[in-house]
Specification:
By secondary structure, this protein is an alpha/beta fold. The chain is 28% helix and 25% strand. The relative contact order is 0.19.
């Protein structure tokens, strides 16, 4: 069955796992006879995976997952591996695939895999791909379709969101340390210090916009001046001006924390400038719009994921075409925690390739 023809239930069950656990694997109740094998690092995450419908859960720190997958599949292997871990699971994942299987990498939480000769794929005619959600939401229509489906499913209760950890933005270094130290589960969000209450979000936005001077003002943001550990995340004053044509200014309500932020902090992915402000997703309220802009107004609640990077800030300037409206029924904190993960799941099950019957999902360590 073509991924583009998946019914909504299939998509919803798949995304539910990713949203609740930071994973991307389908529930045991997924149609088409799919069997889901998940690897996790802790007993707590194993229990959560089972609760959410994973057929088989492997504690890969205690068990050899290659051997267990071979046992579970009676030596046949799996149709596809979704791997956000990288180095620790990459080679073993190739072993677990059946002939003409798909290896889908979309993260590096344990580091970059060792170099792989192309001939390593030949024996079983394997397919290997690295996917990025930003390539699948590069047009305005793609972005609206993916984000709209995610938000709709959350608002209707099809998707459940677990926000297990909240940190003040000024304490993002601790959040990064906990994320890398495997002390977190589910979604992690950063809350700008002294953020306004949701009940007064639009009134506050209009008041801010009305009183804001035309000249550049200063806001607090996290800046990275050199690559390294969490200690390189600095809480600083930065200058922010007025939005230009095609731009809006957004006061962030909540900021999603993702492993891609760690990659940029360490220099695994290279920022276009140095110093830079990390952060790839957030939700907030529009406080100013550029000259001549239509379709957005002060007080709108919006979310975004992707470029331009820089959501680790109290306020930021964004291209208007990069944001999506947040439904009134959806808390902006929830929107910030789900938009990037949700659109990633949307990409994996609806856009990448045919839906498999047996899949192996590696959760980050």
């Amino acid at each position: 069955m073509d991924a583009g023809r998946l019914n909504l239930d299939t998509l919803s069950l798949f995304m539910r796992q990713l949203v609740e656990l930071g994973l991307s694997y389908a529930s045991g109740q997924i149609p088409f006879g799919a069997t889901v094998i998940g690897t996790v690092s802790t007993t707590k995450k194993a229990a959560q995976a089972k609760e959410d419908g994973c057929h088989h859960v492997i504690m890969y720190k205690e068990e050899d997952f290659e051997t267990r997958v071979n046992e579970i599949t009676s030596g046949k292997g799996v149709d596809v591996v979704y791997d956000s871990v990288g180095k620790d699971t990459f080679q073993g994942s190739l072993v677990c695939l059946k002939s003409r299987g798909y290896m889908v990498s979309y993260g590096l939480s344990s580091g970059m895999p060792d170099p792989l000769p192309m001939t390593a794929l030949a024996a079983k005619s394997l397919f290997l791909t690295w996917v990025s959600v930003f390539s699948y939401t590069s047009t305005r229509d793609e972005l609206l379709q993916a984000a709209g489906e995610v938000f709709s499913n959350v608002a209707s209760g099809i998707l459940r969101v677990r926000i297990n950890h909240k940190y003040p933005l000024s304490q993002v270094a601790q959040a990064h340390e906990d994320l890398e130290g495997r002390k977190t589960s589910g979604s992690v969000v950063l809350i700008p210090d002294g953020v306004f209450e949701q009940s007064t979000i639009k009134a506050t936005a209009r008041a801010i916009s009305a009183s804001a001077p035309e000249a550049a003002t200063m806001v607090k943001a996290i800046r990275v001046h050199e690559f390294g550990g969490p200690e390189v995340l600095k809480w600083e004053d930065v200058e922010i001006g007025e939005p230009k044509e095609g731009e809006i200014r957004v006061k962030n309500k909540a900021i999603g924390l993702n492993f891609i932020d760690v990659y940029f902090r360490k220099g695994v992915y290279k920022a276009s400038t140095m110093p830079f402000t990390p952060g790839m997703e957030a939700a907030g309220v529009v406080t100013a719009v550029g000259p001549g802009l239509t379709g957005r107004e002060v007080g709108d609640v919006v979310a975004y994921a992707g470029n331009p990077m820089g959501s680790y800030a109290e306020e930021q300037i964004l291209p208007a075409e990069k944001v999506v409206p947040v439904p009134p029924s959806l808390d902006p904190i929830v929107a910030a925690s789900v938009i990037l993960k949700g659109m990633t799941a949307h990409m994996l099950v609806r856009r990448c390739f045919k839906v498999p019957y047996t899949l192996l999902l590696h959760f980050r360590p």
